[in-house]
Amino acid sequence: MSDRIHTLSGYFHEYQKSVADPENFWARVADSFHWKKRWDKVLDWNFDGPDVKWFLNGKLNITENILERHQYTIGDRPAIVWEPNDPNEEGRTLTYKQLFEEVCRFSNVLQEKGVQKGDKVIIYMPMVPEAAVAMLACARVGAIHSVVFAGFSSNALSDRINDCEAKVVLTADGNFRGKKKIPVKAVVDEALETTSTVETVIVYQRTQQEVTMKEGRDYWWQDAISGASTEHQAVEMDSEDILFILYTSGSTGKPKGVVHTCGGYMIYSKYTFENVFQYNPGDVYWCTADIGWITGHSYIVYGPLLSGATSIMFEGVPTYPDAGRFWQVVDKYKVNQFYTAPTAIRALQAHGTDPIAPYKLDSLKVLGSVGEPINEEAWHWYHTHIGKTKCPIVDTWWQTETGGIMVSPLAGITPTKPAYATLPLPGVQLAIMDTEGNEMIGNSVEGNLCVKFPWPGMIRTTYGDHDRCKQTYFTAYKGMYFTGDGVKRDHDGYYRILGRVDDVINVSGHRMGTAEVENAINEHPLVVESAVVGYPHPVKGQGIYAYVICDMKNRTEQNLVGEIKDTVTKIIGPIAKPDKIQIVPGLPKTRSGKIMRRILRKVAEGNMDNMGDTSTLLDPDVVDQIIEGRIE
Ligand code: ATP
Ligand code: MG
């Protein structure tokens, strides 16, 4: 824990050091890990290729830094605590020692099935401990895992299998989600009809629902591990060997297979975990994400386990059996750090505070938010009703591509401001760019968010298509990684993410973030959620089209629309007043809970013929309802 920052001045000091001499800074962090062979050179890079390498010729296995490392010191500490979907079912705990054995067993199974270093393994599993075991076993044998969220359709799954030419699929019979029992293996079967590379499927039995097993291809997980040895020698990996491929959520287009490598990712996920959450040995930490997202990779599995933390893994949903489920789990395990997404906070907020009342929540020390800008109202609700005003909120900005958190308060150290991700972590050199390609210096500026120097956890390529990586991230601004997000740096030098650049609306020359307008709309007491997009406007250049979910009470639509416009005028000014407000039953969201604004933009533009790739939408029906109610 030598790299832990404890004070605000300590943060500024570390930040300075990381900029003045990045190689030395990260080498010092990397020194606290176990390497089979130390690196020759810390960093080699150019952003034109792009070609970025960290810890060159270093040899390691990330799982040795989780399993071998902790077995004698904290072997009996719970590593993964699993809470099932149904509160009446008993949970499970894997201590570090037990996790070690399970990972070894499954590593042996993988090798027995012919899996070798560099082979691709798809993990399409519910939130059970075996999903984490599967990831670690892949890493241990040198296979490249690609986790696909178990709610994705067979099409989305086969696309990903084909894109990375996977040899093995790890899955389950089914998945318990709230009241539902969802087929999983059946989706795999369907996906495999349009793929040709998969030789082996291993099926974890979870729901006991009926499945078809194909002789010679499909095996039960439980059978496969029964005779396997609990000892296994980790395969030696190079720092720059691929650890995993993860497809982005697809909210802006066709998902990209983001590639992360062993050495840099290991260092970055642990360093950021310990500092942002101010993790202390013995703390119980819970991240509610699914392991199918980068948040689950870095902050359920790798970061916490590298740190020796107790990481809770939750199979269920926030509203089953009722909207108090999260808080019941927090009390049950005395959770210290709780990390979730604004979409979950807003959904729970809509249920009011009654579901929270039965719970103490007094174990909580830190609250976290990730995935979207958190609007001020949700921030205050979270802070007041969950954190009881004593828990700092870490609003963590980052991306699948960044591997770990980039901009965030350090809990309890960095003074927070609602809706601000605040300051960059050490090693993160941000630049705000104007549309002409100039860096905007100083405070009180707004533009496109870039990073001008490599950090260890960054994307190396998009799998199988390096040019796509270059085009998407490294061409907009020469010599910089472009995040795709708009940002504002305020008078204190604090960063506020405005949403995706494509979503920044330009009304009569005034640039506005969708997040900012939504924030204002959400201040109306009857608004549950909103999404704002721009559309071509003959006079203003762009007009503002707002889609709003409301609790109608006994208001008429006309009344409500008028009140919402007034609210926005009052909070931001008349320039931000939406031109059109459509009351909608729901919003098109990706399965990770993000609003797919490109669809809303098409509807607003009246361009409904080609909606693009909607395979990652949670509920495609909502799109038809929105089209029906469209305002001309
Ligand atoms: P795709 O790249 O396929 O469109 P995606 O960008 O939604 O998908 P992720 O990598 O999961 O996939 O999400 C990263 C994005 O989420 C960021 O670029 C940003 O727009 C948003 N985001 C994440 N955290 C925050 C935050 N704390 N505040 C504001 N925005 C955030
Ligand atoms: Mg993205």
Structure description:
- The chain is α/β, with parallel strands linked by helices.
- A 7-stranded mixed sheet has the order 5-4-17-16-18-19-20, sandwiched between helices. Strands 7-6-8-11-12 form a 5-stranded parallel sheet, sandwiched between helices.
- β4 (78-83) and β5 (92-95) form a beta hairpin.
- The model has no long low-confidence stretch (mean pLDDT 94).
- Bound molecules: adenosine-5'-triphosphate and magnesium ion (MG).
- Residues 248, 252, 399, 484 line the site of magnesium ion.
Topology of helices and strands:
Layout: H1 8-20, H2 22-30, E1 41-46, E2 51-56, E3 59-60, H3 67-74, E4 78-83, E5 92-95, H4 96-112, E6 120-124, H5 129-141, E7 144-147, H6 154-164, E8 168-172, E9 174-177, E10 180-183, H7 185-192, E11 200-204, E12 218-220, H8 221-226, E13 237-238, E14 242-247, E15 257-261, H9 262-276, E16 284-287, H10 294-306, E17 310-314, H11 325-333, E18 337-340, H12 342-349, E19 366-370, H13 376-386, E20 393-396, E21 430-433, E22 445-451, E23 461-462, H14 466-474, E24 481-489, E25 495-500, E26 505-507, E27 510-512, H15 514-522, E28 527-537, E29 541-550, H16 557-571, E30 580-583, H17 597-605, H18 621-628
Parallel strand pairs: 4-17, 6-7, 6-8, 8-11, 11-12, 16-17, 16-18, 18-19, 19-20, 29-30
Antiparallel strand pairs: 1-2, 3-13, 4-5, 9-10, 14-15, 15-23, 21-22, 22-24, 24-25, 26-27, 28-29
The structure holds adenosine-5'-triphosphate and magnesium ion.
The site of adenosine-5'-triphosphate has 26 residues, from strand 19, strand 20, strand 24 and strand 25.
